[in-house]
Design brief:
The structure is a single chain. The protein has about 400 residues and is mostly helical. It is built from 16 helices and no strands. This is Acyltransferase 3 domain-containing protein. GO terms for molecular function: acyltransferase activity, transferring groups other than amino-acyl groups. Keywords: Membrane, Transmembrane, Transmembrane helix.
């Protein structure tokens, strides 16, 4: 297939949402983060909840699609080597050099470390456990923080690539053909039903940890989405069906999101004592309250993903000015952005700039830092490029054009 510009564009949009979301984490009330401002913003929670229900699933979906698009051109063994190189090397580099900035700022804010970053890094690179509570992940001796996506993506890629030879022997291609033709209805209905079961059965028992091992709810949430992306990537009939149903999918996403957010708002009123259960039980009976809320959550999370794919295929699948450059920048920006957010907040919070100027400056510093480091260092220094998931070749060809970003890492 020709290059899918809509997937590149959705990748860029997903990164932009991720940066905004993590800036919001500094200011949202009652959500833990590595650094928190005293100028908390209560309203930030609501748009963050809406995005949170599908933002990481979108990244795994795009990564699955990227893998599915190149399967026909490369062998599973070659793809496994390439994905391992482009995921595990940036992960190791990020753990050793990028993420420690967050850990140091967090430890300084908590008062568990009073030295400079150099002395902190020397201690951190020994990879020995720290006293519990020193910073997030201190008990393990190191932390990957926002880079947790990379080991998850690597494990999922290995699982899919290793299973391909066995699936071909066992009739996997015929099953895939059936699923994407006569059995297409299962692709629309099974994922939200599976997410509903996971939310009801796994989420209460296995809270999200991002520790890879034992994080069963997260795996139940993200691995099927990744596999779905691999499955549909090269199948034009599925994409045509998505585009044809884009309005219906958008309507379902809006309706289910409205139900979910309305119930969440009512729940907040109950928590604050502004309403009693008796006064709101006319909306949803008490016995059905959780089931309706979780069902709306599952339906919204899935239909929002499909609607994004549908509208992307319909409106974004064409070359946009700067898209290739932005698509190449996604992986380095992903690796850098959260450490820059935490560092900017660490510098700016003591200045007492208030609830408007401070978050805007944190966002501006993050964007400026990512842009400068990517443009002036990462994409220009050959040996640094692989550390951020880019090929070692220069970003520009002899003709001066920027080649397509590789389908790896963060999609």
């Amino acid at each position: 297939m020709e290059r899918r510009h809509d997937i590149d564009a959705l990748r860029v949009i997903a990164l932009a949402l991720l940066v905004l979301y993590h800036v919001g984490m500094v200011y949202v009330v009652d959500w833990g983060f590595h650094i928190k401002s005293p100028d908390l913003l209560g309203w930030v929670e609501w748009p963050m909840v809406l995005v949170n229900r599908w933002r990481m699933s979108l990244l795994f979906l795009l990564s699955g699609i990227a893998l599915g698009l190149v399967l026909a051109r490369r062998t599973p063994a070659r793809l496994l080597v390439e994905r391992s190189w482009r995921l595990l090397l940036p992960l190791a580099f990020g753990i050793a050099t990028i993420v420690p900035v967050q850990a140091w700022c967090e430890a300084r804010m908590l008062g568990t470390f009073d030295g400079g970053f150099g002395s902190f890094l020397l201690r951190y690179l020994q990879f020995r456990p720290w006293p519990p509570g020193s910073f997030t992940g201190a008990e393990y001796g190191f932390t990957w923080n926002h880079l947790w996506y990379l080991p998850y993506l690597w494990v999922y890629s290995v699982a899919v690539l290793a299973s391909l030879p066995w699936l071909r022997i066992a009739g996997g291609p015929a099953l895939a053909d059936w699923l994407t033709t006569r059995g297409r209805w299962l692709l629309w209905t099974a994922p939200p039903l599976w997410l509903l079961v996971a939310l009801l059965m796994l989420a209460p028992r296995f809270p999200t940890t991002h520790a890879l091992l034992g994080d069963w709810f997260s795996h139940a949430r993200y691995f099927p989405v990744f596999v779905f992306g691999v499955l549909i990537a090269p199948r034009r009939a599925i994409w045509s069906a998505l585009v044809a149903r884009r309005w219906a999918l958008s309507g379902l996403a809006v309706a289910s999101a409205s139900v979910y957010m309305a119930l969440r708002a009512v729940g907040r009123l109950l928590e604050t004592g502004a309403a009693t259960m008796e006064s709101v039980e006319w909306l949803v009976p008490l016995a059905a309250w959780k089931l309706v809320s979780v069902s709306a959550h599952a339906l919204y999370g899935w239909t929002a993903l499909l609607a994004l794919l549908a509208w992307g295929a319909r409106s974004l699948n064409r070359p946009w000015p700067g898209l290739r450059y932005a698509s190449e920048a996604v992986y380095p920006w992903y690796i850098l952005h959260q450490s820059l957010i935490v560092l900017a907040a660490y510098w700016l919070i003591p200045l007492g700039l208030g609830p408007v100027r401070e978050p805007l400056l944190v966002l501006a510093c993050t964007i400026a830092g990512c842009a400068v480091l990517h443009e002036l260092v990462i994409r220009r220094v050959r040996w640094i490029r692989p550390l951020f998931g880019l090929p070692a070749r220069h970003a520009a060809t002899a003709s001066g054009r920027i080649p397509p970003a590789p389908a790896n890492g963060i999609a």
